[in-house]
């Protein structure tokens, strides 16, 4: 087995990276890679801090908890650019938490 190679950035090429989705799934606000308002669940469902607050800090897709999304250093964004695929589910805004399929 080949040893892991540590680059000056401290990363090997076999590491899966975060998608860094560009927007909130609930209100579609922009969440750029350097945003400190971005929150993600374990599946990287991505929401803004205000929506996480409104949803009771529980992911509507998987019921998991949220954590602040780590900021990718700007010098790595050229090499590992963020996702440009917006995920937007307006139903999350329209449907109260108690009417969703998950508790
Ligand atoms: Zn939002
Ligand atoms: Zn989730």
Question: Which ligands accompany this protein?
Answer: zinc ion
Mean pLDDT: 86
3D shape: elongated
Count the helices. How many?
A: 3
Largest sheet: 3 strands, antiparallel
Helix and strand pattern: EEHEHH
Radius of gyration: 16 Å
Q: How far do the termini sit from each other?
A: 44 Å
Task: Indicate the low-confidence ranges by residue numbers.
Answer: none
- Can you list the strand order of the major beta sheet? 2-1-3
Percent range for helical residues?
Answer: 10-25%
Number of strands: 3
**Helix-strand category:** little secondary structure
Q: What percent of residues are in strands?
A: 5-15%
Your description of this structure?
The chain is largely without helices or strands and 103 residues long. The chain has a domain at 35-82. It has three helices and three strands; from the N terminus they run E-E-H-E-H-H. The chain has a three-stranded antiparallel sheet with strand order 2-1-3. The longest helix is centred in the middle third of the chain and has 6 residues, at 49-54. It is elongated. The mean pLDDT is 86. It binds zinc ion (2 copies). One zinc ion binds next to strand 2 and helix 1.
